[in-house]
Amino acid sequence: MQKPNFQNNEQISQILRVNHAGEYGAKRIYTGQLDQIKSSQDYKKIEHMYEQELVHLEYFENKLHGAKVRPTLLMPLWHCFGYFIGAVTARMGTKSAMICTESVEEVIDKHYEEQKIELQNLPHEKELLETISKFQAEELEHKETASGYTENMSFKDRLLSSVIKSICRVAIFVSKRV
User: Fold this and answer.
1) pLDDT tens, N- to C-terminus, the chain (178 residues)
2) Sign (positive/negative) of CA torsion 65, 169, 48, 12?
3) What is the DSSP letter of 122?
4) Contact indicator for 52, 106 with CB cutoff of 8 Å
5) Rounded-to-integer distance, Cα 22 and Cα 57, Å
6) What is the pTM assigned to this prediction?
7) Comparing C-alpha atoms, which of 76, 35, 71, 28 is closest to residue 50?
8) Distance between CA 50 and CA 53 in Å, rounded?
9) Crossing angle (nearest 10°) for helices 94-120 and 126-147
């Protein structure tokens, strides 16, 4: 078994910190959407995704605590901003809420894929790698659910998607470090 070194510990700390922040942000996005969505069918779909995010969040909260890794210092920002993005996009309509979901999940899929590549070189982190793989599959289910609403996107829709993807990339970058 490979003995963890400082570099690996920092790498794992960043993975746990950023994934915890991301799952917390997802929880807040879905909370905002659920507070605004009126259709019971759409509500149930979003509620299902929300419930999966709660499982992801609980996992990373436990891993943070167990590894004695502090969460990102930006949690208050993600608390407010996640809810805001979710509520505003849902207020714009179900299509916009699903554009939000699809955009976030596209970025998260790439982010998890990069983490899986990193973790393949750390055999003592097999459980983390397997869990991230499982969560990635669920995030892709969310993206697939959302894609049913996002056909024929207008310029405004594509702009909204681009802005959300950019916000996610920035959030990932800073949450690893701060």
Assistant:
1) 444 444 458 889 999 999 999 999 999 999 999 999 988 899 999 999 999 999 999 999 999 999 999 999 999 999 999 999 999 999 999 999 999 999 999 999 999 999 999 999 888 899 999 999 999 999 999 999 999 898 889 999 999 999 999 999 999 999 988 9
2) negative
3) -
4) no
5) 8
6) 0.89
7) 28
8) 5
9) 160
Beta strands in the chain (DSSP E): none
Torsion of CA 99, 80, 169, 107, to 10 degrees: -40
Q: Catalogue all structural domains in the chain, each as residue range(s) with its CATH number.
A: 6-177 (1.20.1260)
Are 81 and 133 spatial neighbours (Cβ–Cβ below 8 Å)?
Answer: no
Residue given tokens 């699809």 in the structure block: 102
CA distance 20 to 14: 10
- Residue 177 CA to residue 155 CA, distance in Å, equals 34
